[in-house]
Write a sequence for this structure.
């Protein structure tokens, strides 16, 4: 069908002309297609028989598209463009110049990256000792808690799995240490910055 569409397009007109100006001779179209004129005439006749439509009116040695031929001309050109782009794509694939790269990551990896980015952005702040570690406990617990909603694990209590309870414990521990730092850390922090001990 693609080859026959080439015949319709070549006989009808050059692409830059409008359909009303599409008048051509079979011999001129045969030259454009680099085939013999009788072979082109047979192909056009075979296509008209196959489709059951008269595509061209033959008047005084010229071919004029019928209404049906004009209606199919646009479809033929679309088909030819698609066939051409298919050939180009095949050549690119043959030479390894195109393809699809799919990048995927597990939810655990994505959440790990998020935790890392948050902690990395806080690294240069003047935070008391231990703060980053406790913050990590909170963030790691939170990410594990969220991941466990995607997994199918049996519920231990209150509809939460064992891993979710462990995650909650990590978050509570991390928050408790962030809110109430041990006195040894306060003393060490006070000595490091030269302030009197707080009581």
């Amino acid at each position: 069908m693609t080859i026959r569409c080439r015949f319709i397009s070549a006989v009808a007109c050059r692409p830059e002309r409008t359909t009303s100006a599409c008048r051509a001779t079979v011999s001129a179209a045969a030259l454009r297609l680099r085939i013999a004129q009788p072979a082109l005439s047979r192909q056009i006749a075979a296509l008209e028989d196959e489709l059951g439509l008269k595509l061209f009116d033959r008047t005084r040695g010229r071919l004029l598209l019928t209404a049906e031929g004009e209606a199919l001309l646009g479809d033929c050109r679309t088909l030819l463009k698609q066939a051409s782009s298919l050939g180009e794509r095949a050549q690119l694939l043959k030479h390894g110049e195109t393809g699809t790269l799919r990048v995927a990551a597990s939810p655990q990896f994505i959440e790990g990256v998020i935790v890392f980015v948050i902690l990395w952005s806080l690294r240069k702040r003047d935070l008391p000792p231990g703060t980053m570690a406790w913050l990590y406990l909170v963030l790691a617990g939170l990410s594990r808690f969220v991941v466990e909603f995607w997994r199918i694990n049996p519920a231990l209590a209150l509809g939460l799995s064992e891993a979710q309870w462990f995650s909650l414990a990590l978050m509570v521990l991390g928050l408790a240490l962030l809110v109430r730092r041990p006195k040894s850390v306060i003393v060490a922090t006070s000595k490091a910055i030269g302030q009197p001990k707080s009581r």
Remarks:
- Strands lie at 23-24, 56-59, 62-65, 155-157, 160-161.
- Residues 67-94 form the longest helix (28 residues).
